[in-house]
Design a protein that fits this description.
Length: 70
C-alpha cells in the first residue's frame, strides 16, 4: 500500500500576497524553474532544498509556507 503525502502551499501564496509579491518575483529571486513553481501551484511535493531557498528569501520557517494535509 502506497501512502500519499498531500501538501498545501496556500500559506506561501498568502505570504506573497501580503508582501505584494508575485510568483514571478519569487521565481526570479530564488532562481527556481517555472516547472517547480507550477508543481507548487498544483500542491505537489517539491525538494526540501527548494523550500529552504524560499524560506531564506522570505525570512521565514518551512511551517510558514507549507502545510501537510492529513
Amino acid at each position: 500500500m502506497k501512502i500519499r503525502c498531500g501538501v498545501s502551499y496556500n500559506k506561501l501564496w498568502k505570504i506573497l500576497i501580503d508582501r505584494k509579491l508575485k510568483k514571478k518575483d519569487l521565481r526570479e529571486a530564488t532562481h527556481l524553474s517555472p516547472s517547480v513553481i507550477a508543481k507548487m501551484g498544483r500542491d505537489e511535493p517539491v525538494n526540501l532544498e527548494t523550500l529552504a531557498l524560499i524560506c531564506r528569501f522570505l525570512k521565514c520557517q518551512i511551517g510558514d509556507i507549507v502545510e501537510i494535509k492529513a
